[in-house]
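#struct-pred

JT: dropping the chains for the assembly here, can someone run the whole complex?
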Amino acid sequence: MTKGHDKVLAFRGLTKRFGGVVALDHFDMEVDEGQIVGLIGPNGSGKTTSFNVLTGIYAANGGEVELLGQNITNWTAQKVCEAGVARTFQRSRLCVELSIFDNIMIGNHQHLNHGLMFNIFQRKAFRRQMEESFEAAHELMAIFDPPLAGRMLEAVGTFGMIDRRRIEICRALISHPRLLLLDEPSAGMTEDETRQLMDDILVVRERINGLSIVLVEHEMGMIERVTDRCVVLNFGQKICEGTYREVASDKLVQEAYLGVE
Amino acid sequence: MTDKSMDMLIGFVAIVLGTVFLITFVAIESQIEILGLIVLTAIAVVVSARMGISTRISEAFASNEPLMNSAMLLATLVVAFWFREDHFPLLMIATVLLYLTACLGLNMQFGYTGVVNFAGAGFFGVGCYTAAVLNQHTAVPHLLVVVLGGVIAALVGSILILPVLRTRGHYAAVVTIAFGIMFKTFLEVNDTLGGPQGLKVPGMEILGWSFNSNIEIGAEIELSFYLNYVAIGLALAVLAFILTRRIERSWVGLSLDAVRLDETAAACFGVNIKRWKITAFTLGNFLIGMAGAVFAMMLGFIAPTNFAFGDSLILVSIVLLGGMGSPWGTVIAAGLVILLPEKLQAIQEYRFLLYAIVVILILLFRPQGLLPRGLRTYVPGWRG
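RK: done, full complex below.
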């Protein structure tokens, strides 16, 4: 539930074009601190594109992105990350030849000491930081996937899709972000696995004060159960917003998903 | 005997056998014996892999690194000592060590960070020409000249990296190829740097000890002067090896891997792609340049023909053959690539054909390299 009314994220008139295709068309959206907002819409409606513009992978063609009161439009991906945004990807983007621990640590990049002097010459201090980081990663992994927590030094390639999804979520959470962007985290999961995943995310949200989440999903049960509000996109435009109930019974939304008779 | 001690024993035996093999290989002249030895060794390697012995050797190395590394170092010293009075074997060993240093630098750029560099020979040449010019025209102490060879190569690299950063994949490769060609052409048309005839390079001298005169002990023993170069080559190689290891086993190494494996995702987690590409490229060229400086002083003479595209390819092939990102693999591959063509003198014209066939076979049957890189262990033996 909302903890105060500070805005974490705002899209104002966000527009993104790819040649002639308008992927985002003056898209407005707001997320309050501590909220979980569902971002739904048919395939190709611009949901992932909005994530990509937010995280600096694409440059916006118009409009603004505001994070915690700052205008972060067209910031580099690195700066957006440092401002407190973490994400997962629609098609899992892990480094399969690296270990689980390595992958999670990439997520924690901004909190680790990368100085050449430190890493080459201060090996004792490095070892301490490494062991602390391992503890933290292990704790997080134990929440989402206990069997994997004992196999953190194995290559990610060894594990299946669902396990990799969970590893990716740990990678996003390890840095204690302010805003978490989840892109179809439950794709391919059974109902039980989906329920478990959302429970685990809520557990971590309790621990990270003020964590806000934007959740792109096709699994409506999850959206209904977990989100405070929903925003519906179609062809890059927002066509509806409100609670899940309100949105599900909206005619425009039904037409977008099911077509006009 | 515990499992662990058994592993160690097998590891030591392997090192001893390897040393014997190396000494024999370098010493024998007869072509038939050499071919026979190669075939015998190939069979032994394949059989031991089948019997799981190779796994036990890697276990030994993984759990007792300091000990096993010291054993390898000792083995190298034994080999150098065996050939202490022979010029040519020592020259070959020193060459292997210097190429190893250069390839460890190349490995940093391309094995870890994925920054392709088809101008390795060019940077090696920068180190060579730095040594040539400084030794001939200045009184800069030679150890400093070695370091300067690395520094100048790194500086030249920092110019090349600019277009490389703006291009991806094959285009970046072509940019480095173009640079290599430009460098060689620049040397050929530039008479102040000797032109196509090349330059003489005064030999190394430290505190009055000349590296180019044989070492006399008493009245009877005369050791080849190449021992000096083997010594400094070994020092450089050990330095490069330790540097590579420490970097790989750290957050720096992780960042480099992240850049190579998925730039976009890495950027989303705050990894500064440009910074790491520049760091790897610069450090790598520093090592390559230093190796070049010592190489020039050892040969006494350098010419632009030594720094052609084909030579850059040889450096790249050593990294690929050994296993991208695998320091020990680079060691084995450097030895193979330098020594094999040298010893197969009878088939003069077909030397490089045979070499090419060996490379193709290895990449066909073992594309991950002779000693593929394993998972990162931040602290050897640490299990979490």
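JT: nice. The beta strands of chain A are 7-18, 21-32, 36-40, 62-67, 70-71, 85-87, 179-183, 212-216, 229-234, 237-242. Chain A touches chain B through 42 residues (CB under 8 Å).
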